[in-house]
Amino acid sequence: MEEKQKYDCCCGDPKRFFFLKTAAVRFGVKPAELLRVRRHYKVCNSGGCCCCLKKAEILKTISLDNVELYSEADSSLFLFFRPERLAAVLSVPEHRELLFRHGYPAAHDLDADIEHLSRRFLSVEFPHEVGIFVGYPIKDVRGFIENQEPVFVHRGRWRVYGDPSESVRCMNIYRRAELHAAAVFDKYSGLQVFPSV
Question: How far is CA 182 from the centre of its chain?
């Protein structure tokens, strides 16, 4: 038992990162999160304690629906999501219109939309409509795609176009979810599987 505790003593760093980055999805305020997951993580602390986490362990720990959108030799790009929340966002008529212009089906079907997004990651450098999937305001996704002039927002998480109020409100909600998750993780650092709310 002592050996296992020594082995697990510093595995919290990657787990903490994924817990914080998926917090807004977990709390239901964001439809999805796009994250790169390496094949394995080797973490050592200053006391010489090391651990190795494999991709499968990370995915199990995150415990959210996910799809591998793109894979490279050492890592993969995953979309972590709540199906009901993502389906609601993707069914908004304004979102469907933009997605349709990028080859998505006219009628919303979550599986078909995710499959098309995955194909887009293979066919274009980066499919910027993914911003809709991860909860960016449509005006910002459209502004980026159309190469409009962005508005500077201090500590912005994405480029903002037009009136920044909706964008800043979203950023603050997502940031608060991460701060809350940080407090939970730090209090309960032995979490083996992240809770859903």
Answer: 16
